[in-house]
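re: ur question from yesterday

yeah so i grabbed the chain u mentioned. its 586 aa long if i counted rite. heres the sequnce exactly as i have it in my notes:
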Amino acid sequence: MRGRVGTLVWRALLAALLVCGIGLLPWLTRTDPALTVLRARSAEREATPAVLAAVREQLGLEAGPLKLLGDWLGGLSRGDAGRSWISGAEVMPGVVQALGASLLLMAVALTIAFLVAALVCAPTLWSGGRRRGGSGSAMVAALPEFLTASVLATVVGVQLGWLPALGWYGLQWTILPGLALGVPAGALLGRLLDDLLPGAFAEPWALAAAARGIRARRIASQAVRRCLPALLPNAGLFVVGLTGGSVAVEQIFDIPGLGRIALQAAVAQDLPVLQAGTLALVLLAALAAGGTRLAARLLIGPALRDGGLSSLHRPAPPAQRTPPLLYAGVLLGVVALGLPRDPLALDTGARLQPPSWAHPFGTDALGRDVLARVGHGALDTLLLAAAISAAALLIGLLLGLAPRLSGPLVDTVNALPPVLAALFVTAVVGSGGATPALAVTAVAWAPLAAHTAALLGQERVTLHVAATRGLGADRWYVLRHELLPAALPPVTRHALLRLPGVALALAALGFLGLGAQPPSPEWGLLLAENQPYAERAPWAVLAPAAVLALLGALAVTAAGLTVRRPRRKPARAAQPCPETRELAFR
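ran it thru and got these structure tokens back, copy pasting raw so excuse formatting
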């Protein structure tokens, strides 16, 4: 009981620190909040001292940030979140309406994600864990959400006219954005579940059930249920991520969602709207985390409470060597062909040209060779994304060792879109080359920490760990030789799966002037620059998108070859602690 109270206090403290940090954001940027508000209201009005003084008096800025924050918190108890600094309208009705739109979009996207995850795991379930799903799911998981949304809106919505592509007027308008969000998320969830299923099918209960002639369908359903404890924490993170991280999709489909209004308020420094929107995201994160824990308890029952659930410790079936070698060869070939070409050479007479012998990937809107830009952008994109993924993996593993400390922190951090995190980083350290890397790293570790904590929680109650402790091994020996070897391979594969997403998060920051800027040939920036021409010149976006998807497939298949759990040492190999050794000699 004391532990639960401490967790609730820690969660409330984190939420309070976040809200206070948002309240100080206009002053942390070292710019005059009155000037920012004036430019947002009327860009043509001259910012004279008298006009700025009038804005400060109207908004109460002269009282200072602490007074404004106190008044805003006091109004929340009465259901009043203040009025917008830009429009003057009440904040609470708009935030509630945006939350409803985000929840509806999240429900549709989750439904699609679960269906996609089921398709990814179907080969493993059908074969009883003897055959794994292909690497195509990794390529789907690497698809950029904003690119998928743009293609769906252009092709399905505009050209074919099958579904509405703009607006938010009913359930029919949720299908295309739900597909854009749910398909990549479902592919990633399916890969995580597919990584756990072979261990479930190899456990004694599954082998005994198969020997007794129980139907394979029933065994497969129990295997899925057996894997849920390790998967549910990440599923909870996806719930919040689909709400706070769908800013680009909401922009493309003109959806008045929570993430979109929070981003617009952050850019305009509309403090009351930004505070209310972020607080709603944090509360949603807390509800999602509590819901996943409740679902785990209902599905697992006393085993979860009493620590009687063993770990899924069977290594995955060997991966085939041909696909990763093929993917690596194609990727290196594209880079090698693009490096000798000039990525900055302009030819306005060859704008948006289709692929040809002179330009195998075509040209962009400025007549630049797309193959050259893809090849030269590989080094910057891959090196920076790999460094961020490695840092996120290390942070996630360390914080995953302390779930009571990291659990509420994970929920709070995951509620922030990377763009909003970038605004905080920019306010503290200023805009620069390190800003996007710091912002993405600040949020990229959260899913890895949740995955680590879930796996270690199962591994700690296994018989071999209990036997090792019974022979006198101390906690550091158990951690080094038993717990980490069990958690490191799947968490590392998880980090590799997210590597293409890290590259896209870096690109998304370029829209706010916080990431790579033109004429840089960074892969994500290529997608952002050419996305408006997807209908006229699809090759301009398909080439970098295909290379990024190829990177995702290479990452996940290479993980199956390079990240293998080492053989467990027998329990007798554990070195007893000095007190146990002394008793043995007596």
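noticed a couple things. The first helix runs from residue 2 to 23. also Residues 304-311, 313-321, 561-586 have pLDDT under 50 and may be disordered.
anyway ttyl
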